[in-house]
Request: fold
Amino acid sequence: MEFFNLIKATQKSGKPDAIHWQTAKTEARANLMLDVALEDAGIETGRGHDYNKPVRTDFPVFDDLPKEGTVDFDWCKRYELAEDGRTWQLIQTAAVDDEEAEELSDAIESYKMGLSVELAHFWIGGMFTATPEERAAAIKAQMDMDNNYLQNVILAVNSVEPLKQCHNHIRHTLLEAIKVIWPLDGKTPELSHVLAFSKEWIEALNDNSAGRGNHRADVIEKWKAKSAPQPAAVHSVKSEPENMIRTDVGTNAGGQIKTDRNPDLAPSLDVLDIEIAAATLPMDFNIYEFPAGVVRRAKEIITNKEEPWKTWSAVLRKSPGILDFSRGAIFALVRNAPTEVLHSIPALTSYVVKNLLEIKFMPDDGNPNSEERWNAIQHYFKAPAAVGESGENVDQQHTESNQPPAQLVKVGAGVFDATALFNAPSKDTAAENINNVPVEEANNHETKTDSEIQPGEKTIHSTESHVAVNQKTDALNNDSVHRNESTETQLFTHLMVDLECFGSNPDAPIVSIGAVFFNPETGGMGSEFYKVISLGSSMGFGGQPDADTILWWLKQSAEARSAILVDDAIPLDDALLQLNEFICENAANGPACVQLWGNGATYDNVLLRSSYRRTGIPALCEFRNDRDVRTIVELGKAIGINPRYEIPFEGDQHNALADARHQVKYVSAIWQQLIKN
Reply:
């Protein structure tokens, strides 16, 4: 808080009037500082002395203030108090013409600029007065949403109440300090950092204050050291290699670790492509000494972009650290892959994530023997035909069986028929993974029939009778509109997604994702997904925030804002990869069949796909399966129902997961009424 005092001289003394101003937290501290300054200047006040008691006035708004904390005798030669005895005004020494008066009027009106415009004016080099042209330039700068640095500063200052109430010269000093800590030609600081610094700076003591505690100069030095680039030696272990090889999506492809490859062969994604193509060939050969015919055929596959090499290459070339895996691991991964995962990139991506593992190989000792290395690892993929759905060798699963192993039937270049594998008898059918159960259970008003399993679906043979199954289903599906279902044995096709973003444009930065699998015919909900995403990460991938949406968020409840301002927020690409994994693990018939629901034809689904595109991560759900919540709501209104506001909302408003759950409830209610009618 600023304290401005007039020390008026008595008429008999003939001495000039003086002023003194000081920033202090309390009035008592300010009076103490004034007494010290007057004593240092040799001024005594009160009855019998040359000066009257100091009188506090309003803080003047001029750009030629004297130095803070000093007793100044020149100020009163240029300014005088107005009739109210509190407001300072310029002493009119001579009349001015109309043009000069208009310019002076403009300068005075410049102090009435809004806070955001004033900050932009200071940011672009303006001082405490502004001409109409300077005000126009400040308004233009304040509206420039591409200037993330300035927008972060404006948001930070507007969020600190003392900065909104203080004099503009204090804010000007703050902006200069921010530029010192984070230079304009450097990296744009995060909003949270600017906000934290601003709070700490305004709460610190003024540099001229004699009190104990942190001074503002100390705060600036602390943040300069905190934000300065660390010496290279400190991070030498984590520094980027000089010749880093990157994947097709820009991540580190590896290649710095010694593998079973010839040490004279430089690792690259092109070499990886040849290895993939060779692994798709049906013949048996030493993978450490490619025959000339294998090399020619592999290059031909690459040139013609034949399947399944094309799908394999698209997935593995995007896998981080792929070049750190040995050639043996790549061959084992490709040759042991079940046929059904080769039909789509999402399915193959899921298979690679679960099965890409390093295998033991005989390291080179300066005199490598390729035959010994081949003999040491070939058992990992000696019989690529005998592969089960999980990628494990079927021979190991059925070692006690005396039947000959099923074989792949070649139907084309790199394409095999695995029908014999899936028709082979199994001793352990009832112990398969429970996630292979059919998608939906019967409603309590339906008759369960032994219908034939459709192509592409899977089921297990339960040891319970049909009667027992029907009894269990009837017990779970009660008369409520939103029935409870056993999610332990249920997989779903419909996925409700809700996003919280800092904008409504297609490239708005996402700050949280909530998703719930559900069945609209029964209202049952399945697995859930919720992640809070770093705003800096979303903007780093090209997210463009919207000023109106940011202001809207600032007006929301503390619970809603705290849900997206957490310390454990993760990067955008990490969240999208985890969402893909969540979909692969819980989709009934694979990601390509998932019905993706979003609230608005141009919002959730569009923003989600835009984020996938900007991060280079493939979106697993087909665009043709996008579904719109608002369209369903309008259909409900057409038949006279609108349960969105009738169903109680559970949780915090604008929490992505809570919103997704609520949308599932009223979409299911409308769906059931539409089907009923």
The radius of gyration is 36 Å. DSSP finds 26 helices and 15 strands in the chain.
